[in-house]
Structure formats: structure tokens, C-alpha cells
Amino acid sequence: MKHQTIEAFNNAQSEKEKEICDALRAELDRNLTGAESKIWHAHPVWFLEGNPIVGYSRLKHCIRLLFWSGQSFETPGLSREGSFKAAEIRYTSLTEIDRVLLKRWIEEAKVIQWDYKNIAKRKGKLERRL
Fold first, then answer.
1. Strands 79-80 and 62-67
2. SS3 for 36?
3. Which of 18, 32, 111, 120 has the most other CB atoms within 10 Å of its CB?
């Protein structure tokens, strides 16, 4: 199912997953003022200057929060994801969201960015944004 808005994506989840998605969206919107948020590749994603920073998706048994540059963060708690610089955390309950920790990751995401926006132009080579 293709969702046109973040609200539609969240509303399509189970009640428990919707609570997680709504809480994540609220924290991301509150702490990433000025960021563009939209459905990208079927999932809610937040961008700074066209560069994807953070997003969430529904997996089989959880909601995954993904930071595109999370492997470069100093704040612990994220797990490596994929072959680039992304890192994730998975939630199965609203009570698992540590808002203090989440805010620290968001603050790091604002300043620690790998340039995913131009990765295709560089034929898959990822560079750090300054």
C-alpha cells in the first residue's frame, strides 16, 4: 500500500505501532524544525537541505527508526544497518522510546551528515558533508 502522507502511513499501522510512529513523528518534528518531512521510498523521512537524515519504517515485528549517518554518532544505543553509515533502533512498545536519548541522536544528526543526496552522482561513493 502506498501512502501519500506521513499521517496516512501512521494511521495504517496497528494501534500499538501507530502510537510509536506518532511519538517518533512528534519528536522528530519538534527537534528538526526547518527539516522537510515526506514519504520517501514508502516511508516517513526527514531531510535537511535535501539530504535524508532520519526516518522510520514498519518491519514485521517492530517500528525501525533509522539515522542515515548514525554509525558516526558518539551517543550509544544504535545498531549498524547496511553497508553505508546508517544505524537503527527498533521499537515494539511506546515505553521503549527514550526521549532524552532520541533528542541526543537528533542533535547529532543535524551536524554529522554523510552526503546521501549525491551518492548516485558519485557512483555509490559516500562522502562526509561539512
1. unpaired
2. strand
3. 32
Alpha carbons 122 and 47: distance in angstroms, whole number: 19
Q: Is the C-alpha dihedral spanning 20, 24, 75, 80 positive or negative? A: positive
Three-state SS at 72:
helix
Gap between the Cα atoms of 118 and 130, Å rounded: 14
Cα-trace Rg, the chain: 14
Report strand pairing: 62-67 vs 87-91: antiparallel
pLDDT higher than threshold 90 for residue 82: no
To the nearest whole percent, how much of the chain has pLDDT over 90?
72
Question: pLDDT band at 84, cuts 50/70/90?
Answer: confident
User: CATH assignment of 6-129, given 3.40.109.10, 1.25.40.10, 3.90.1150.200, 1.10.10.10?
Assistant: 3.90.1150.200
